[in-house]
Input
Amino acid sequence: MNIIFNEISFLPQINDEYVMKDYFLSLIKLFEKAKNEYGFSHLLFPVNLMSIKVLREKTFSEWICCISHQGEKNKILSVIKRPYNEDVLAKEINSLDKYYFKNEDAGISETYCNGLATAYLTDSLCISLLNQALWNITQIDFCKIINDEFETELVSVKNISKEEHFKSLDISSFVENIGNVTLDETLLPPENKPISLRHDHGYDILMAFSKRLRQSKYILAIINSLPFNPKAVNLIKEVYPDGKIELVLYWEDKGICVIVQTTGKITEKQRL
Output
């Protein structure tokens, strides 16, 4: 699955190249989490990224040349590679000029938004720099021109700019919906599947339950026990894109819980 960079999140522009470097490295760290834990494979940028103004007085190319730390410079450049937004849009590339973003309170006038439009057209997740409170949201609304009279309608994309956003219901649900779930059988024998539980209330019950769970050909490990959920009424409390599942023994005292690692993974859906 691709995740699309929102280049409009360079706005409102700052003029501190060192602060921008920190923001961009934080964005890369966030993408790495999305890649390692949620199945995303590539971070997409617009093909003209190098010519985009990222500071009040510098384009992306001019800014990257000023980074003196070679390791940090290489880390940033390493994520900017094909495919670009334009490569995945195919025939829809001609629709990019129908979309624009504006926010008068932030001083952003009507601005074409390549990344937001690409995320919308490909039903993908967007990622923004957290350089302004403006981008600390999980949904970004913007405008689509719908006819020759330049009438518009409001459209939106899901957005992340910090790790906590992955815990929000709208983002976790969106990530699950844009992917296909694959569930493979493991060849690990039950006795080789680790069980790690805290020695607290309900340990014996959870251990017996865990030993039964690891007989399943779709279970890889019982990772840990979890805080009590006395009000739970369902076995499954939470499902994660990387195959982890939180289970609540709601019929037991205090709703004792366990988190397990399954073979399930979310992979990218094929677009029609």
